Amino acid sequence: MSPLARTFLALAAVLVTLLAASQAQAAPVIVVDGDRAERREDPLVPDPSTVRLVPPPGKATARIAGRARLSAKGARAVRDALRKALRSKRITRGTYNRYRRDYRRARSVRKRLRGARGDQLGYVIVSLDRIAGRRKLGATRMPALFVQLERNTRYWRSLPYPASGDQVTFRGSELLYQYYPGRGLQLQPLSTFKKANQMHAACLGTLDAPCRPAGLRKLLDEMIGMAVQRSRRFIAWEYMFDFGGGAPPWMSGMAQATAIQALGRAAQLLGDPNYNVVAGRALGAFEAAPPTGVQTRGFRGGTHYLQYSFAPRLYIFNAFLQSLIGLYDYSKLTGDTRALALYNRAEPEAEHEIPYSDVGDWSRYNYRGSEASHDYHELMREFLQSMCNRRLGATYCDYAARYQGYQVDPPELVYTGPQAATKNRYMRVRFDVSKLSAVQLDIYKGNKLAMTRIATFRRGRGSFLFRPRSTGFFTVRLAAKELRTGLGKKDRTTGEFEVSAP
């Protein structure tokens, strides 16, 4: 693609982004109201494909439903943690009684449930037991865990069974939970803070959705109540389930940066500087090494911010970019020099890493990893374009345009030979193709079809084996249809070769 074409695509992408900002695309969400649940479309809920968790390579999250067994030991660990928090006056007597009541009810309901419903609730209970058994059930971790326990107890008794990845919210709350098979409903910090950003955009008029400032305030106040004092230096919003080899509680740099970004935007919109105070308390996650924090050494030698605190060598390109965007936006909104320093410390590493995400006709999800899905390729392009729109470097503009081209350009197909062959001897009909494509070969002698084949080829050189049965001139017709984007873009080319006698 020429530099002029890339520049045009970059400008087009900006226009597309601006146009899309005014057209909210609603995402499905299950709304629970008492003993009823209804699936709705909500323009403020983020697309579930953009918050889907992908396990580290070789760490596929196994289905563990049915293995969670309630035990007296687990119950004692929870009871001891609650008593310790009460004695130290970290929780009130009323809170202590409520948590004990919710825990007992959950175990009682679990005993009456059968099959998959019992497995989901059982996992949530046992996960809480294990956290308590490892002496990690501190007072600041209790709100998120016990609210999640109550939500699952209510849901799995009789409400409609969700599909994997479904997002769920409860009447009177703005928080988003997500269904992970075998793990029940889990609080989704990234999805919830993305919802906050959507609510902010609606109030600015850049998203065609109702402006709900009271709802935004409620969402953030709820999430502040769920923040965990992960270390003496910072708070975090954690994930409370086993995933990809990581045991709970773990955190995500992408979710943390999105939280900081959302809090800074809301502080400005709602005129409440307290949200900036909370955001400032969350910055330390980017100064701490894993597994406590998310700052690590990148594969190009600089500072990299992790998606998963339990995976210090998993370099996920889109997550790193979103972490940088969140820190940058917060620093510009508030003038916070600490956030800007964290951005400046890691941005050069991102600029050096981005070329390694390019496979020539698509993007990788992570360094030395597999190619991204369609959704994650688009998410990567969007983050690159966001960096470009903020004028944070030409590299981001170049790759945003390049990845846009990979989505819309047709394949390029070139016949490379042979020019001559020998009768009754096998030969290879060779070609180059620019994108992953289904390639069809038709060989004619005059008007007679001598061979037809179709196969899938990756970018680069390809060939078909052919054995000519007669001498003379043969015509080659090649056609390619790209397979990644669903647009079905095509290219064709022709060639010829002469077959002589042995």
What does this protein look like?
This protein is α+β, with helices and mostly antiparallel strands. The chain folds into two domains: 404 residues, Glycosyltransferase (Alpha/alpha barrel), CATH 1.50.10; 88 residues, SOR catalytic domain (Immunoglobulin-like, Sandwich), CATH 2.60.40.730. The protein contains 13 helices and 17 strands. The protein has a five-stranded mixed beta sheet. Strand 8 and strand 9 form a beta hairpin. The radius of gyration is 27 Å and the shape is elongated. The protein starts with a helix and ends with a strand. The N terminus is likely disordered.
Counted beta strands: 17
Question: What is the second-level CATH architecture of the largest domain?
Answer: Alpha/alpha barrel
| Overall SS class | alpha+beta
Helix content: 40-55%
Apparent shape = elongated
Please tally the helical runs, counting DSSP H or I stretches of 4 or more residues.
13
Q: What is the CATH topology classification name of the largest domain?
A: Glycosyltransferase
H-E string: HEEHHHHEEEHHEEHHEEHHHHEEEEEEEE
